[in-house]
């Protein structure tokens, strides 16, 4: 599903280049559920953004679904992103003036899906995440856990192959965080979508079938059990 070979990312500092990711080599199989863990500044978000085609590596190769994607044009990256990848962030990123279903429908709108079909698909996905009775609410009328469910529905409505989540439970209390985690695990099992989730929560990470540990831009270890 996903393969990185010797992927590095450098940022220019006044006197030298700083390696934020240093020769990362990693494979993730289709349908896996992985926690990406590591201290603050270890490169987790940078790695997720490279995998999600939001950023480009300084060197190395990245394959998604057998396609070498690191050298794609911005236009081609955007097309692949819309088709293959869903994102969830800590701060939800819902558009405040759109209702829950209109937020969920956005990826379908970008694809040119007719409005009736957008609405039907968005409402079905909201029902799947337990929000059948909140489809007409605005983000300001939803709790944190509900907002994150809307964001998850938006990430999955276009049937992506890969779901990337950067601290999706970081703004939630621990009981709501566990509910959201259980929802992600259920969607991974039912839809077969591959999930890579950054988390600082050791308990949540340990409940994932696989953990990938980063430190100083390098993969320290990868496997099941706590890294
Ligand atoms: N645009 C940038 N220019 C320069 N340095 C950057 C840039 N973006 C990130 N960095 C540096 O890269 C390193 C890794 O950042 P990253 O955001 O990937 O860490 P993280 O593991 O996600 O941390 P956190 O757990 O705090 O979210 C940090 O030292 C950061 O300062
Ligand atoms: Mg981060």
Could you please describe the fold and organization of this structure?
By secondary structure, the chain is of the alpha/beta class. The protein has one domain: Rossmann fold (3-Layer(aba) Sandwich). The protein is built from seven helices and ten strands. Strands 6-7-8-3-9-10 form a six-stranded mixed beta sheet, sandwiched between helices. Strands 2-1-4-5 form a four-stranded antiparallel beta sheet, covered by helices on one side. Strand 7, helix 6 and strand 8 form a beta-alpha-beta unit. Helix 3 runs parallel beside helix 5, helix 4 crosses helix 5 and helix 5 runs parallel beside helix 6. It is globular and about 55 Å long. The two termini are 23 Å apart. The mean pLDDT is 93. The structure holds adenosine-5'-triphosphate and magnesium ion. The site of adenosine-5'-triphosphate has 10 residues, from helix 1.
């Amino acid at each position: 599903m996903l393969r990185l070979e010797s992927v590095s990312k450098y940022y220019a500092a006044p006197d030298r280049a700083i390696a934020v990711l240093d020769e990362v080599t990693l494979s993730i199989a289709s349908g896996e559920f992985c926690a990406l863990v590591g201290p603050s500044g270890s490169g987790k978000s940078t790695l997720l953004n490279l995998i999600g085609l939001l950023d480009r590596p300084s060197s190395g190769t990245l394959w998604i679904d057998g396609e070498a994607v690191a050298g794609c044009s911005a236009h081609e990256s955007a097309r692949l992103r819309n088709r293959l990848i869903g994102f969830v962030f800590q701060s939800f990123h819902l558009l405040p003036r759109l209702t829950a279903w209109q937020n969920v429908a956005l990826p379908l709108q970008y694809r040119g899906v007719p409005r009736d079909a957008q609405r039907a698909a968005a409402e079905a996905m909201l029902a799947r995440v337990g929000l059948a009775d909140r489809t007409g609410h605005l983000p300001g009328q939803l709790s944190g856990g509900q907002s994150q469910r809307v964001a998850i529905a938006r990430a999955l409505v276009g049937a992506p192959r890969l779901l990337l989540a950067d601290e999706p439970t970081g703004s939630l209390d621990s009981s709501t965080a566990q509910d959201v985690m259980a929802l992600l695990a259920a969607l991974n099992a039912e839809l077969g979508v591959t999930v890579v989730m950054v988390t600082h929560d050791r308990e949540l990470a340990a409940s994932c079938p696989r953990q990938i540990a980063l430190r100083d831009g390098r993969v320290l270890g990868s496997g099941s059990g706590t890294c």
